[in-house]
Amino acid sequence: MIKRVVQWDEAGRRCGESHHNARYSDKLVRQVRDSVELDGLSIREAAALHKVHWESARKWLRYVSRVARPERTEVIGDEEES
User: Fold this and answer.
1) Is residue 20 over pLDDT 90?
2) CA-to-CA distance for 82 and 79, rounded, in angstroms?
3) Is 82 among the domain residues?
4) Quick check: is 69 in a domain?
5) What is the CATH number of the domain that holds 48?
6) Domain range for residue 49?
7) Per the CB 3.0–4.6 Å rule, which of 8, 20, 24, 47 could disulfide with 54?
8) What is the average pLDDT across 14-36?
9) Number of domains the chain is built from
């Protein structure tokens, strides 16, 4: 039985790591943002620390990508088979 947590934004579209094109987890995005915003690292330093491309980190920090906030969360998956 496979269950997944799916997040939906205010427009009814999938967002965050549950989006079908997502490459990175929400946790990693938050860690990179915290490294720059709270710890004072540069974008390139934070990207190297977390092993992501610096342009991906730049987009997250400028809120160009990973901007949508989930309005609704659902657990989807197979029901138990008998």
Assistant:
1) no
2) 9
3) no
4) yes
5) 1.10.10
6) 3-77
7) 47
8) 88
9) 1
